[in-house]
Amino acid sequence: MSLTLSNPDNPTGFVAALRKHFFATKLDAVISLVFGALIIWFVMGVVDWAILDAIFRLENRDQCTYEAGACWAVIESRGRLIMFGLYPYAEQWRSTLACFVIIATMVLSCVPLFWSVRRLPALWVGGFTVFVLLMRGGFWNMPLVTSEQWGGLALTLFIFSAVFVIGMPLAVLFALARRSDLPVIAKSFGLIIDFVRSLPLLTILFAAAVVVPLIAPEALQGNKLMRVVVAFAVFFAAYQAEIIRAGMQSTSAGQEEAAIALGMPYWSLVVDILLPQAFRNTLPSTINQAVITFKETSIVTFVGFFELMASGNAAIGTGEWGNQYVEVYVFLAFIYFIFVFGLSRYGAWLETRMRLGHG
Amino acid sequence: MTNSIIKLAGAAALALSGATASSAQEANLLDTIKERDSLLCTGHNGSYLGFAEVDGEGAWQGFDIEFCKALATAILGSPDKLQVIPVSFAQRFPALQSGDVDVIIKVTGWTQSRDTDLGLQFSRPYFIGPFYTMAKTELGAESIADLDGGVFCVNAGTTVERVLADYMETNGVSYEPLAFEKGEELRAAFYNGRCDAIAGFGPFLSATRVNAPDPDGFTILGDVMKLEPEGIVVRQGQEDFLDVINWMVSALLMAEESGITMANVDEMKANPPSPTIERLLGVTPGVGERMGLSDDWAYNVIKAVGNYGEIYDRTVGEGSRYKLPRGLNNLWNNGGVLYPLVLD
């Protein structure tokens, strides 16, 4: 942090700042005016469409025409389909609750209090168990809802967090194996990583969803959602492993040699020296990877899951609401934005925190 | 790009499934379904307008879904025993081979390669997919010939482009094609009046019309340029199951032919006007038992979903927003090509 001294000759204040930044020269002034007008025009257009001319409640279906602004009534009418997908209507409170459980688990695991080898796994095992029990049901007064019927936001969050939670340890494992002293292990894991990375995610998911049941024995198959999540996690791990490996390589070789010279056991070397630095050095890329993964969850729609995006498509996929696709996509974008923006802010907070603690 | 990857993956999965399916002799699917007490039928990963779409409460509806319900009712006695599995178009055949679904009812054209190479079996067509032309209403055209010299918007490089060219050449109608790469561009151009007409698959055209700024400004012309018979698909070797499907379709058509509807089926069952209807509704025993079903299976089906005409009208026809002309999907005595089989 640097401290700026205010210059007594340079007047401060809003008008002065405005003049200094936007109207310093004639060219600046012209550019500022043109772009200012463009921005105002654009914002006005959006406000007109989204709020002033918009129709929020519907007395008559034909109110929503091409000339009118946004027809938010579509969200009122199809909102539950977008949020819950094919989940049985009467049971959707369970899906809501499950959503909160998974969000709470995500938030809690971001709190430093939970960052210990015992607490973090316990938190996630607990969170997933409650989530699956709620979603699946089949006991007390909660009828069984198989994972084929899960959908909407709950499914998107579940897939994302499961992929992240399974993929991250896998990525560490891949990264360590690729750096192994044994050439067989290093080479074969290098090959696995490169192989997985060279395939499109869609192909991997398709194989997991459709091909595995044809060739694997029944006992090993699990259900379709499980297979897809595991396949997705392996894909995530292949990318994340390279990020972590980059982080490890950026620590000086001297540290590793010193640790070995001091007789530190291998796991201590990894857990106490390599990984903390690797994660800190690669935090921006890791957050990046998490954001990409969150958005890529929508690909599971191709193997027949009704996650958020597919539910949105189903919501407009009827003659009645076919024209309101812009409204629905804006709504979806808003949901994605909340989560992705939250993730980015969290990443930024982590970076500041680490810098404060470790100079 | 995404599409070609899906197709490739689908082809690979099928090559594999073909190999495994032939090696394993499967148990009678009809028994498996009864034991499970639910029928696994195909839905869609999103919506296929009019045929498989989802209502505000997450329940499936549409023409194909009604046939799924009818089949579930025929075998298990209630449409609630249907379980709809969402699958994409590329995924449908692998999903059938791997047993994720029992049956595909998903506007699937009966083609030779599917019937032979893929190890599939088709039912008799339950829907005749027509390629139509939709024109601006203000032109007042009643047939394609009236559009002589007009501008036709088409998707570049699609089947439709070829179908249109063939039809126009055969019938000696001149036209000016205006090709577009993307479906959205095509629609926008059509809505904005850049072309007099577009050609396409019937259900697609009616969906396009529903979403137009002014749906009444466009009319689907009666001329059928080409047709694609759509069948219900099961795995090879499931003859008993296929029998049930064929007779289910036939029962729906027979009901329409004899004027039996969802509303009057009870009355018809109480006073059957003819011996055939007596048999159909299970008043005279025998029609169910031969197929391993209850004798009142057809009664249950009609009670649950109505006859063929009612299903069509409710989901894609005049009673729906799509207003797809009945056309070839009418009964033989109404200018269509559909007919029931003989119930003896």
Features:
heterodimer; A: 359 residues; mainly alpha; MetI-like fold; 71% helix; 1% strand; B: 344 residues; alpha/beta; D-Maltodextrin-Binding Protein, domain 2; 2 domains; 13 helices; 39% helix; globular
Please render the helix and strand layout as text.
The complex is a heterodimer of chains A (359) and B (344).
Chain A lengths: L13 H9 L3 H27 L20 H12 L7 H19 L8 H18 L15 H27 L4 H16 L2 H15 L2 H4 L2 H27 L2 H9 L4 H16 L1 H14 L9 E2 H9 L8 H34 L1
Helix pairs in contact in A: 3-6, 3-14, 4-5, 4-6, 6-7, 6-10, 6-14, 7-10, 8-10, 10-12, 10-13, 11-12, 13-15, 14-15
Chain B lengths: L1 H22 L5 H8 L2 E4 L10 E2 L5 E2 L1 H14 L5 E4 L6 H6 L6 E6 L2 H5 L3 E3 L4 E10 L14 E5 L3 H13 L4 E5 L2 H9 L5 E5 H9 L7 E3 L5 E10 L3 H19 L7 H6 L4 H6 L16 H9 L2 H8 L29
Parallel strand pairs in B: 1-4, 8-9, 8-10
Antiparallel strand pairs in B: 2-3, 5-12, 6-12, 7-10, 7-11, 7-12
Helix pairs in contact in B: 3-9, 3-12
